[in-house]
Amino acid sequence: MKHFVITAVGEDRPGIVAGITWVLYEMGFNIEDSAMTRLNNEFAVMLVVTTEKDITENQLKENLRTVSKGKKLTINVRKIPEEIYREKEEKGEIYNIVVYGGDKPGIVYKVAKLLADRNINIADLRTEKTPDIYVLIAQVEFPEGLKLENIQPEIEKLKDELNVDISVEKVESVEM
Description:
2 domains; 8 strands; 4-stranded antiparallel sheet; Alpha-Beta Plaits; alpha+beta
């Protein structure tokens, strides 16, 4: 099995997702993981794809070239070496964090620093600024053994320092 990471960025327009995924479908790739979003007027795509075919990084890049030119995208492809590829694994507890308040420099950094200092992994993070409010939404993975009450004092201190509201909610897993 071969695994690749594909990133694409360009001015938002209809057909970007359809163009990229058509190439992948025609080449026999499966999309394992993806994140696609519009940021201001730019559209960003991140994909982890797999195939059992003997396809090289250069062949994949070449096949994506038509989409890249037609949609004016910057597309990068990177093969994930087998020794570092791993299936998703169970993590510690998962939490959603929402920060909202007035916009100011350093919000993302200070939240990310608090999390990094406690070895809390950021699985997803989004921000949005409106004329009235700045919002940060993150899904994070606590390491085994760390509980929310262990870092609650640090969260309260950060709320006061940044003059924002911060809510943290545990994501309950669904048993299948």
